[in-house]
Specification:
The chain is mainly α and about 200 residues long. It is about 65% helix and about 5% strand.
């Protein structure tokens, strides 16, 4: 029994995990009728795609493939991954896509090309240099849906918590409003305020 699509070009044989299950449960039946199971799937080789064609396309799927291509090409090199991520961000900004599409593509790119903490902050600053954070919000990016967005959200929460604490707001209310943990509040707000106060008194 052969499972084939309408176009057999570039199909490769692939024994799926569930093929073993079928053969196990129906082994007597298959043996009686001398039947063999074969599964074939069409392949799309990302590493063989033309980078320039992908860059020039306004099809959102082309950006997804380009992101995956950069992810494969930059394995083992954090610096190359960082440079590719900045390049992709600039490319995404140049596309005439809906805010919803840009939002989803940014989240996909931001998470696929994940960076170590030191470079996450550097990338956030790079993005802020390209455009102000308020403009990013206008573009439709969700602050909570990507690692870069989470950094923006965290900075915003720390800034808000500091202002609220200085204004005499209860810590319980500050934590509820900002979503900071008690440990984060202690480290990012209390300790920094104390350090600033000590510095000013000397």
């Amino acid at each position: 029994m052969n499972a084939k699509g309408k176009n057999t070009k570039e199909y490769v044989r692939h024994d799926a995990l569930w093929k073993d299950a079928i053969e196990e449960f129906f082994k007597d039946f298959l043996k009686f009728f001398d039947t063999e199971l074969n599964f074939k799937y069409r392949t799309y080789k990302i590493l063989e795609q033309d980078e320039e064609i992908l860059k020039g396309s306004d099809n959102p799927f082309a950006f997804v493939v380009l992101t995956a291509l950069y992810s494969l090409k930059t394995k083992g090199s954090i610096d190359l991954k960082y440079a590719s991520k900045v390049s992709l961000y600039k490319l995404l900004k140049s596309k005439e896509l809906s805010k919803e599409s840009i939002n989803k593509l940014f989240i996909f790119m931001d998470n696929i090309l994940s960076l170590p903490t030191s470079l996450k902050n550097r990338f956030k600053i790079e993005v802020e240099n390209i455009e102000k954070e308020s403009e990013v919000a206008v573009m439709g990016l969700s602050l909570r849906d990507s690692e870069t967005g989470q950094l923006w959200a965290k900075d915003r929460d720390i800034h808000t918590a500091t202002k609220m604490f200085r204004a005499g707001e209860e810590i319980r209310k500050i934590l509820e409003y900002t979503e900071l943990t008690e440990e984060e509040f202690q480290r990012e707000v209390i300790e920094k305020i104390n350090a600033e106060t000590n510095k000013n008194t000397h």
